[in-house]
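Write out a record, fold above all:
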Amino acid sequence: MSNHVYLRPDVYFEPLFNKWFMWPYLMSPATAAMNLVNQHMRSMKSFVANAKIHAKSVKAKSMTGSSLMNLPLSQVDDVKQLIAKSRDQYGDLFELVDAISELDKMLLSEAKGMSLEPLYEKIPDPLRGLVELCYDLNNQPSFRLIESLFYKTSYYKECAQSVCLGRLHSSERKFVLSTPRFADDDHLHLNIPLNHPFVNTLFSMRDVPQELDDIAAQFEALDIEGSLSFEELFTTTPPKKTAKPVEQGKVEIDYLGHAGLMVRTASATVMVDPVLAYMNDEEVNKVTFDDLPDSIDCVMVTHTHMDHLCIETLLQLKHKIKQIAVPKSNSGMLADPSMKLMLNALGFSNVVEVEDLDTFDHEDITITAMPFLGEHADVNIRSKSAWLIESKGKKIMAAADSSNIDPYLYKRLNDLYGDVDVLFIGMECTGGPLRWLYGALLTSPVSSEVNESRRFNGSDYKAASSIAAAFNAKSVYVYALGIEPWFGYFMGISYNEDDEQLVQSKMLVDECHSKGIPAKQLQGREHWVFS
């Protein structure tokens, strides 16, 4: 007798690296090592030494998104064991971090504009054959990581990856970036790499059922921790699919939440920065996996921040995605790892890197990579693109967290590409300071003054208004603010009405309304149809 089952819609997934939630800088080997040693180890040692302080302080609303670990006192020994395991099993990553710091200091001390060839003998052993020394045109020394080769060495710790599965009983998930995840009665940890075939099989079961006995046999063959029964992950009830075919001649846009967009015609479907919610018993206005079509022609990613390059969502969509388009990186600069290499390592085979202004088609949808200024604390990050999507005479601009640092850029782009019908613009105008994201990568301290000056700011009212004006946008929508409560687990933001991001967003929306331009601060789900 057949017993076909589907993956339950309330099953949530956390990709892990050494028990920590996997975000893009934990994929690339060098940045993973720097974050393990300079961030995770420090946080874990702090928790072991000050567990009571962590447990008490983390409950305060003002501590949302902080580095405090959200674990009970009873798990101090678990953290001690993870510290020891990190040292014992991944000691070469600690050596790699020391080598990167040593190389940086050596170049600053000895590279004064003369030939760098004699300095190759002084490259620390862990980096031998993996870097190229170089100057910029002002004789400032640096080095280039041969990043693709790093993925072929022992520094790429595929063995540190695992899959955490649980059932989401509430849309409110705990903040994931500050705390390692341990297997317990409510979760299963599958100790398999994230590109393991079973991962794709499992998530395809949101759409296509499998025999329960076959799935049971596959679970039986895996190394698993945790007491959650695997049968609780599955149901015989088919998913409630909501996606309907698009009528000929029409263009449909769906706001997926946060920075996620989906553009569909009768012939093609493309997405930008998808990050999807899970369905549970809470009836809220959110887009889930059940709301998507069976096939996605292309996913475009704007930049490497985890709320835009969401590994958690992309792995669950792998069986649907035909192509991923990403902006090209600086090819070996530590702070700007290649998204293509990350995604290839995760098992995505058709990943295309694009330059600014590259254009490509998917059936009747034309996509152009547009320059993206700002929001990266003035670090030389090349891997960022806004996306211009054109179909049926309509132009949609997904500008993500772009900031109008140089108004002349948008005038030039408007001269080339014309006005846009729909502008989606992020307004995270009070972003975190330099050390917030890049602190683990720094090999020497920066002053508080420098740290606070260089922030991850997107557009404020003035900047967003001028971008909208430059493109004569016919409608303007503010997104990517982390407003949706079900995304608090990675955004770590809890807004008050007088917070600057909301105040500035309202100013933009009010200005647009005064001009008769449709505008809104987006939250949840939205749907537009153009013909």
